[in-house]
Amino acid sequence: MCLFGSWLASRPPDAAIEVTPDRLSAAVGAARDGRFTVTPHATDPLPAGAVVPSFTSVNLTDGEAAAAAMRRLIDRLPSRPKRVALVLPDSAAKVSLVRFDQIPSKRDDLDQLIRWQVRKSLPFPAEDAVVTYSPGLAVAHAGREYLVVAARRTIVGEYEALCDAAGAQPGLVDLSTLSLLNMFLASRSAPT
What we know:
The chain has 5 helices and 8 strands, in the order αβββαββαββαβα.
């Protein structure tokens, strides 16, 4: 038994909420009989044009309507989530594969190297971006490929404000396709 490992590990979000141009959708996960299952979910439609996903400009063109839909959605869940996974439309961010022939030994140096590489492809100042990455394939010698996601900080903030308006904390922010891919990969590695 690893007491400290489980004590220090962060708890998964209470619910996942996906934002699309036409609706909000939520699912709640729960452990039952030693297995993780998805339990009741809800959707709430959005007025046309309330959410317009974009990498460079305002996404919530009718923030009040979107916030009202988020409150209705959360009210219909079996229990009020405190912490949620927020799944954004793919076009709200830029996804890139970045390859390096050599990887710095320090994490801070790798962070700076990835930000420097991504900076070249951003249509706005890199300081305005939220950048995250995951290691991918190892390449010749000491190299590696990374999956890098960059989003404008203000745009991520728009979506996080929807959760705040409904009393839920966005503990994890992901993109729709990457979230589906992670779920698929997790299901393949799960014991049967």
